[in-house]
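Sample intake sheet
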Amino acid sequence: MSKQFAEGDVRGFRLLLTKLLWFAAALGVAGLGLTLLAGRPVLTIVYEPQYAEHVDLLLVMVVTASVTAIASFLGFAMTAARRFRAQLPIMGATVATTFALTLALVPRFGLMGAAYALLFGAAVQAAASYLVLNAAMRRLA
């Protein structure tokens, strides 16, 4: 990716990034499917029956993992595009969002509140990274 970006190959850079993002999304969809089909029995076998009551929490965490993977691939692409300075504010916004939502949601919603805080934090990271990359690709093109 770094070579593509440095050589001005926006099309190749975007194509590789798109493949990586689709891969992360596909893993998320597969994880959701597996969780819907076998989440309860797996939680019962691996842990104990009381954990199986939280299959809804597992579903949110699978979505969070997928969004986090997407944010990671976007972060790798930012590094390849040499957008280093943007990464610290993005991570700061991610941490601040997660922290604020944890304070707001956990007292009221417990574990599910924590899961949503993580999900929204990952979404902030992915969205901000996308905006930085989109601007970098427009400048390069």
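Comment: The CA atoms of residues 89 and 128 lie 9 Å apart. Helices lie at 2-6, 10-46, 49-52, 55-80, 87-109, 111-140.
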